[in-house]
Design goal:
Blueprint lengths: L20 E7 L14 E7 L12 E5 L4 E8 L3 E10 L2 E2 L6 E4 L4 E2 L3 E3 L15 E3 L5 E3 L6 E7 L2 E9 L3 E7 L9 E7 L14 H5 L2 E8 L9 E5 L4 H11 L4 E7 L6 E6 L4 E6 L4 E6 L4 H12 L5 E8 L2 E9 L18 E3 L2
């Protein structure tokens, strides 16, 4: 039996209050023995928050089902990864387990209730107005369930890969038969996720939800199975801020990418959304994306970013990304006279390709 990697969970706003839980529905192909009358009387769906790969551990929880080929598991903890397998049940006992499916329960959108407008600073370009304003727009969302993941399923003598992430993300898929040799990984394809996952919101209503839409897609490796075991991995060369920039621009938003440099740190990239008077910030330590109020100039964004990081910024650049290459449009140095900062949308000189 092939246990489907496609799983569904309720939308974030449907999740109950803390402690937060979710339901997940899984489906599978019927056992071939089900074609023989009386040989299969039902199925058992096992799940556990402990990793298992081939043998169902005794601690796994079984759910006894009839002859339907789907089942729902309830009260799963948000942010937890679970593992699932199915067996066919008949008069003589249970079959061997199906393949193992895994699923990370995504966290819900966090509702803040109020947002605070930013205040202008630095150069003379106008920023957002100050003062608190009430808003029902969520300003934080967890991307825990949308981090890059890859599942492998043998089918028809080939490897079927299921890739999850966020719509708009481009992944490089590589394979090797010798994981001990780091230089043996070979790129087999590049794939851009464009298919929303079954649990993706049908009508995302704010820039955060529109920028980060859960995606689930598959890829069939044309290389026949057989011979030494083959291993796969995925790489996401562009970060979530750059993905958000492309996705939101495609939906009519006015966005800009800004890289802020602080001593001893890699350039910190954010996506400024003009309509929100805020930038999208992804924290890879907590897997949270949030909207942070800021004025629109490079200096204002850099000042706000450095304050949120508790760092002292040195310079910041606005840039674009074309075919994966980043090109600087304008740069601001903190110690320069703010009156000399480039105006919004300015290109200081011929674009320079950069790597950060």
């Amino acid at each position: 039996m092939l246990l489907c990697a496609t799983v569904s969970a309720p939308a974030a706003e449907e999740l109950p209050p803390s402690p937060q839980t979710a339901n997940v529905t899984l489906g599978w192909n019927p056992s071939p023995d089900a074609q023989i009358p009386g040989k299969v009387t039902g199925y058992k769906l096992y799940y556990s928050d402990q990793v298992f790969t081939t043998v169902i551990p005794p601690t796994a929880t079984p759910i006894v089902l009839g002859d339907q080929t789907s089942g729902t598991v309830s009260n799963l903890a948000v942010g937890q990864i679970y593992f699932f397998a199915v067996t066919a049940v008949g008069p003589t006992g249970e079959s061997d387990p199906s393949n193992i499916a895994s699923y990370t329960v995504p966290a819900p959108v966090l509702q803040t209730g109020t947002t605070t407008g930013g205040t202008t600073s630095g150069s003379g370009s106008s920023g957002s107005t100050g003062g608190a304003t009430t808003s029902s727009t969520p300003t934080e969302v967890s991307l825990l369930g949308m981090l890059p993941k890859l599942w492998l399923y043998p089918t028809n003598g080939q490897s079927l890969l299921a890739i999850s992430g966020t719509v708009g993300a481009t992944f490089t898929i590589q394979s090797t038969t010798n994981v001990a040799d780091g230089s043996s990984w070979q790129t087999i394809t590049n794939i851009k996720l464009s298919e929303p996952a079954p649990d993706a919101p049908a009508n995302p209503g704010n820039s955060l939800a529109k920028a980060f839409i859960p995606a689930l897609q598959s890829y069939q490796d044309p290389t026949p199975m057989g011979g030494p075991p083959r291993f796969y991995r995925i790489l996401m060369p562009l970060g979530f801020a750059i993905i958000a920039d492309e996705v939101l621009r495609g939906q009519g938003y006015s966005t800009r990418l800004v890289a802020v440099r602080c001593p001893g740190l890699d350039a910190y990239i954010v996506c400024y959304v003009t309509q929100e008077s805020a930038y999208l910030d992804y924290n890879d330590q907590t897997s949270l994306a949030k909207l942070v109020s800021s004025g629109p100039t490079i200096r204002e964004v850099a000042t706000q970013v450095s304050a949120s990081l508790a760092q002292n910024w040195t310079s910041a650049s606005e840039f674009t990304v074309t075919d994966g290459a980043k090109q600087i449009l304008a740069t601001v140095v903190k110690t320069d006279n703010p009156a000399l900062d480039p105006p919004l949308g300015a290109v200081q000189s011929s674009t320079i390709t950069i790597d950060f």
